[in-house]
Amino acid sequence: MSTINATGTATITVGTGSDAREIAIIYRAATATTEKPALVWLGGYRSDMTGTKAVVLDALAERLGAACIRFDYSGHGASGGEFRDGTISRWLEETIAVIDAAAPKSVILVGSSMGGWIALRLIQELKKRATGLKIAGTVLIAPAPDFTSELIEPELTDKERQSLAERGYFEEHSQYSPEPNIYTRALMEDGRNNRVLSGIIDTGCPVHILQGMADPDVPYRHALKLMEFLPADDVTLTLIRDGDHRLSRPQDLQKMEAAVSALIIDDEKLG
């Protein structure tokens, strides 16, 4: 496994043979004399590591002297692989490989939309491994855990169901891109195997959820439902009355920065 320890861009290979794909990473090394958790950006469906929130998170890490890890899932941004091959399991495998390559001692996970689902699954997988990596906190921005079964499948039209059955995918207009969103049968089936809203989620760390109440993609009630599955954690929910799904306005970005900074301060107090 390749290791990453210097500020700059890097790539790692995940998978073997015909399943191999190059994962692009932007890494910022820590500069603070006191060890702070590395900030890990987990992007959303069809988002990449150069988006507004990811860049702002990196700038925050620079100011704080903390490490920052950004990367693109396969089929996204600068990474290789086909988008249509993507599943939660596949993107989770890549996330774990990136963290293994960076080898931080502790992290704060910042997951946006689908990245919130990846963050929760990542915590579950890291707990199984008992590697000693500390999860110092998690910030979930418009989190979309189980979005395939909770938000997409119940709303499928007959035409979309037919397309899934006959073509293996269906397309949906995207308000964020001229290209349509593509949802494959493999993604939907794999999503059921990665459900987290099926029992108590014990992250073992503070969780801060930022959710827009005017979000057309992930209703704020989904964030309320997620909280029901986090009874053992210290959870803060910030509802932003006029916030949309992206939460990329200056005032939204300030809330993200404040949430991350507060987690770092709390971690330092705990020693």
Automatic annotation (TrEMBL):
Occurrences of domain AB hydrolase-1 (ranges): 58-251
UniProt protein name: Palmitoyl-protein thioesterase ABHD10, mitochondrial
Cite the EC number.
3.1.1.93, 3.1.2.22
Q: Alphabetically list the UniProt keywords.
A: Hydrolase, Transit peptide
From what organism does this protein derive?
Rhizobium wenxiniae
What Gene3D superfamilies would the database entry show?
Answer: alpha/beta hydrolase (3.40.50.1820)
User: InterPro entries under this entry?
Assistant: AB_hydrolase_1, AB_hydrolase_fold, ABHD10_acyl-thioesterase
Q: Quickly give the catalysed reaction.
A: mycophenolic acid O-acyl-beta-D-glucuronide + H2O = mycophenolate + D-glucuronate + H(+); S-hexadecanoyl-L-cysteinyl-[protein] + H2O = L-cysteinyl-[protein] + hexadecanoate + H(+)
**Function statement:** Acts as an acyl-protein thioesterase that hydrolyzes fatty acids from acylated residues in proteins. Regulates the mitochondrial S-depalmitoylation of the nucleophilic active site residue of peroxiredoxin-5/PRDX5, a key antioxidant protein, therefore modulating mitochondrial antioxidant ability. Also catalyzes the deglucuronidation of mycophenolic acid acyl-glucuronide, an active metabolite of the immunosuppressant drug mycophenolate.
GO terms, molecular function: mycophenolic acid acyl-glucuronide esterase activity; palmitoyl-(protein) hydrolase activity
Domain of life per record:
Bacteria
Pfam families, A to Z: Abhydrolase_6
